[in-house]
Amino acid sequence: MRSCGERGSVLVLTLIVLVLVGVAVTVTYTAILSTTRSAYTLLASTQALYAAESGVNEALWRLNLNGKSHQNGSSYIQEWTTVNGINTFTVVEPDLFAVTVSEGSTSYTITSAGHSQGITRTVQFTVSKPVPVTSSVNWVEEFNHKGKVDNQQIPELPQVVLNYSPQYQAGELVVSTDYEGPEPLAAEVVRIKAGVTVKADIFAKGDIFIEDDVTIMGNVISESGSIYTAKRGLIIGSVIAITGDINWEKPGGGHAYGHSLDTEIRGLVYGRYVGFGNNNRIYGAVIGSTVSFNNPKNTVQLVPEYINTGIVQIYLPGMVTRTWKLL
Q: DSSP characters for 46-110?
């Protein structure tokens, strides 16, 4: 009987241990899953905010041009409609933002809703008529709640912390065919070949090379390398080189795949050095110790913004100092 009792006790103890281990594994898995979801939610929320700000910049650009495209002179604004006595028009960019502009007697009110991965962030901005522009080539965004920034200060990069740790593939990952998530692409080095469409985030320990005619619907992030862009690209997401550069020149000199021409980025651009070629359009914040454009008179559009205590310095005339109101 005592032998059976001992065996029973051992069995009960074993079951208790197994239950405790199972609970621990479940708790750990839930915590990891929650952390991963939180990281993705934060990225999506941030991207949605940048998209909303991009919409405001788009509206300001159109208002500055009096509704005309500087490229072909055709009308760029839809016909104004009257709602409750106020003239309005709407700008919609698929997968990015929806903007409504209301015209009062002395000002425009711009409301922009940015979208990213199911999350919507909305900003609102009121600008006087006519829309003011500055002739200065150095312009820093001013937020009332962050205080005024002295334009003469030396730009200081804020600290960027990557709060999501992907599983990096060893060596170089060459992406030569279209790819759609949900899992991100992650490797020590990532190379996106010409003409490929990627619908996922891209992470690299080192360098990321983006060739011609590439479309990326996701964030592009390098932890310790640089990001090299090419021609006719479209990136709907942030481009972040945490400790490296974002450049249109390949390592060792010369242009990477020719020039960075006609590339559009809809999101935050961050790097130690940020450099582009001609005819690029950036709808989002641009942050770097040095920001350089091969020809700033082309169609580059910038919306500087603070992250932590970082200072944004850009070299493009015709921008408007403004304060955001989060709704």
A: HHHHHHHHHHHHHHHHHHHTTTB-TTT--B-SPPPEEETTEEEEEEEETTTEEEEEEE-SSEEEE
Same-domain check for residues 114 and 202: no
Is residue 161, in this structure, part of any structural domain at all?
no
Which amino acid is residue 3, in one-letter code?
S
Asked whether residue 137 is assigned to any structural domain, the reply reads: no
Which of 251, 188, 259 lies closest to 230, judged by CA?
259
189 and 255 co-located in one domain: yes
Whether 79 is in a domain gets the answer yes
For tokens 């600008």, the residue is 127
Classify each residue of 55-76 as buried b or exposed e, where b means 16 or more C-beta atoms within 10 Å of its C-beta.
Answer: bbbbbbbbbbeeeeeeeeeeeb
Q: What is the pLDDT of residue 208?
A: 93
Q: Tell me the residue length of the chain.
A: 327
Residues 120 and 252 in one domain: no
Give the range of the structural domain holding residue 39, as residue numbers without chain letter: 1-132
Domain count, the chain: 2
- Whole-angstrom distance, CA of residue 85 vs CA of residue 251: 58
Q: What would the pLDDT profile of 248-278 be if each residue is shown by its tens digit?
A: 655 444 333 334 567 777 777 777 777 766 6
Last residue of a domain, one of 132, 161, 182: 132
Beta strand pairing status for 97-103 and 86-93? antiparallel
Q: Is 323 a member of any domain?
A: no
- Above 60 in pLDDT, residue 320? no
pLDDT value of residue 99: 82
Determine the Cα angle at 166 with ends 161 and 168, to 5°: 115
Among 132, 156, 180, the domain boundary falls at 132
Task: Identify whether the C-beta of residue 264 lies closer than 8 Å to the C-beta of residue 281.
Answer: yes
> Taking the complete model, does pTM exceed 0.70, yes or no?
no
